[in-house]
Write a structure and sequence with these properties.
This protein is α+β, with helices and mostly antiparallel strands and 116 residues long. 40% of the residues lie in helices and 25% in strands. The protein contains 4 helices and 4 strands. The chain has a 4-stranded antiparallel beta sheet with strand order 2-1-3-4, sandwiched between helices. Helix 1 runs antiparallel to helix 3.
Length: 116
């Protein structure tokens, strides 16, 4: 099976259409996979406003995002893609995007102010 470079963004677009339409949620989700199994191990949600946490709290968005991240980690590892164990999902005005980054970069972002 060949790696589909649009797989991640297509799935994120579908999730955003389901849950984020008409919202102005913005922030990021830092995530890390378990080294042995390439499954989701940790996710840190850094949203810009307290209201954003309340908005997603009452929906299935958070649960479905975690499920999707787990699937994306597995898919990327199966295809031996770089930085397959960690990255960041950005949320901005009802849209989602993903960036796969080195572990040190994502760890450093955990301590950064999101507004930087």
């Amino acid at each position: 099976m060949t790696y589909d470079s649009t797989f991640d963004q297509t799935r994120l677009d579908q999730l955003a259409q389901q849950h984020l339409g008409g919202t102005d949620i913005s922030g990021r989700i830092l995530f890390f996979g378990e080294p042995e199994e390439n499954r989701l191990d940790l996710a840190t949600w850094q949203l810009n406003k307290d209201e954003d946490y309340e908005t997603i709290k009452g929906s299935d968005f958070k649960f479905q995002m975690m499920e999707l991240l787990d699937s994306l980690l597995t898919y990327r590892a199966q295809h031996c893609q770089p930085n397959a164990r960690q990255g960041v999902v950005y949320a901005e005005n009802g849209k989602l995007s993903i960036e796969w980054l080195p572990k040190e970069t994502v760890e450093a972002m955990r301590n950064d102010d999101i507004a930087e």
